[in-house]
Design a protein that fits this description.
single chain; 281 residues; alpha+beta; 2 domains; 10-stranded mixed beta sheet; globular
């Protein structure tokens, strides 16, 4: 009897951890809050699979329309193309996914987007995947309302606008990509003429002494891999989105996001440019 009581007591003591929401629930709140915080003025959200839109919209306070067109198991690309083609007028598409193992085992929805558009960011709240694809990344002008700059990187390219968010954050993250917080950076490059080489972007967070406390993440499907600088057309503006991964032991205080363009030897083309002030709590 005593042994049984001890066993029962140990089992009950373990319940608070075993039954914590993070152990068995999708974190729709984190997914919805991130989309709402980062959405643009002309974005769309696709929730996949369809019935999960209820959970997402329960927490979503953003302005972007939410679509959930896929109501059956997907086995062929021609099932996904017609609904996704209807999203092309939007600037970017947020793909919010869960429960796809049965309904989309070959990831046909994500593959259709990834084959055509740069990946701007990705988040992984518990049980949910959030990815943003830039459906409009070759532009005639930068969006209104972004901080405008005019920084030359060699004779061919200028950075004409940039923005970093959030502007205040802890250095750590426990919900979407632990252990480090990320700063999302939007860049708008103007090509005066087609560059002769493929350049890469360096983005990092530094303190007042120039010490680096965060470096950009590199992704296979990012803008400059899908649309490298050697293919840019004169006069077009190319949007590039990056995430700067912070050192989780970054001390509280003020920091700066700085950006440079690097040639194929990793040498900077011009001087680093500031793209935002960040406060680490």
């Amino acid at each position: 009897g005593v042994a049984l009581l001890l066993t029962a007591g140990m089992w009950l003591a373990a319940l608070p951890a075993n039954w914590a929401p993070t152990n068995f629930r999708e974190d729709w709140r984190a997914a919805a809050q991130y989309v709402a915080a980062q959405e643009g003025a002309n974005d769309a959200v696709v929730v996949h699979v369809d019935y999960l839109h209820v959970a997402f919209e329960r927490y979503f306070q953003g302005q972007s329309p939410v679509f959930f067109p896929f109501t059956e198991q997907l086995t062929a690309p021609d099932q996904v193309e017609p609904p996704l083609l209807g999203l092309l007028p939007f600037d970017s598409v947020w793909l919010v996914q869960a429960h796809t193992l049965y309904f989309d085992p070959d990831h046909l929805v994500e593959r259709w987007l990834a084959d055509r558009f740069p990946l701007a960011t990705e988040q992984y709240p518990n049980g949910v995947t959030v990815k943003r694809f830039l459906t409009r990344y070759r532009l005639s002008q930068p969006p209104a309302g972004l901080p405008q700059i005019d920084a030359a990187f060699g004779p061919d390219i200028n950075l004409v606008a940039c923005q970093a968010a959030p502007t205040r954050t802890p250095a750590t993250d426990v919900r979407s990509h632990p252990p480090s917080a990320w700063i999302h950076v939007q860049l708008y490059w103007l090509a005066h003429r087609t560059p002769s080489a493929d350049f890469t972007t360096r983005a990092r967070m530094i303190d007042a002494q120039g010490q680096v406390w965060g470096e950009r993440l590199h992704r296979e499907r990012e803008t400059l891999r899908l649309w490298p600088t050697s293919r840019w057309q004169p006069g077009e503006i190319v949007r590039e989105d990056l995430d700067v991964n912070l050192n989780p032991i970054t001390p509280p205080g003020p920091y700066r996001i700085v950006v440079a363009l690097l040639d194929p030897t990793a040498a900077p083309l011009g001087t680093e440019v500031g793209c935002g002030e960040i406060v680490i709590d």
